[in-house]
Design goal:
Order of helices and strands: HEEHEHHHEEEEEEH
Helix content: 25-40%
Shape: globular
Structural class: alpha/beta
Number of helices: 6
Length: 189
């Protein structure tokens, strides 16, 4: 809905086993289904393909796979540690980090607006005698949220978006994501 409200041609990079098809009634978009291995380079290729096809907006659902999915950075790093660094995962990051950084740079330098979703580590809390799930932290490399202009966290049961980072100043109170959310972002841009 954010992308629809922003307007323009939308490309969806779908790592969620074709779940993008569940949203085809909301707006028009082209989908690239990305299966494992989720190496950073595959995401970069998908971003470049979307750009070359003239899309205005790219949605990556879910960028978590580049970090912790099958063949993503954490698995790549372990493989490098085991094969080239005598089990030293710390040293292996010297090769893994530049690959991850290239993925982040592809997002930051894209000609398109990029919307990325991340899975969230959850915890259950008890409030007023009821138990509910709370998103605690994105499943991504520490600091990834700083690369984005706006970060909205969606609450599991109410679907309200709460801002955790916002350079726009548009998001002060929890709100439902609508096309208007995208229009507000487009006007700000």
């Amino acid at each position: 809905l954010i992308a629809k409200g922003m307007g323009g041609s939308i490309a969806m990079i779908d790592t969620e086993r074709e779940s993008a098809s569940l949203y085809c009634d909301l707006c028009e978009f082209n989908t690239l289904n990305l299966d494992p291995p989720y190496r950073p380079e595959r995401f970069i290729e998908a971003i470049k393909l979307a750009e070359s096809e003239g899309h205005d907006i790219i949605i990556i659902d879910s960028a978590t796979h580049e970090w912790s999915g099958s063949g993503g950075c954490t698995e790549l790093n372990q493989m490098l540690a085991d094969t080239q660094f005598k089990g030293n995962t710390w040293a292996a990051w010297s090769q893994t980090t530049p690959r991850h950084r290239a993925f982040i740079d592809a997002i930051l330098h894209s000609k398109c607006h990029v919307i990325a979703t991340f899975r969230s580590k959850t915890e259950t809390v008890q409030e007023n005698g009821r138990v509910r799930k709370v998103g605690m932290k994105d499943e991504a490399r520490d600091g990834t949220e700083y690369e984005f202009t706006t970060v909205l966290n969606i609450e599991h049961t109410t679907h309200l978006a709460t801002v955790s980072k916002d350079r726009t100043g548009l998001f002060k109170d929890p709100e439902l994501i609508t096309e208007d959310t995208g229009r507000k972002l487009r006007e700000w841009l």
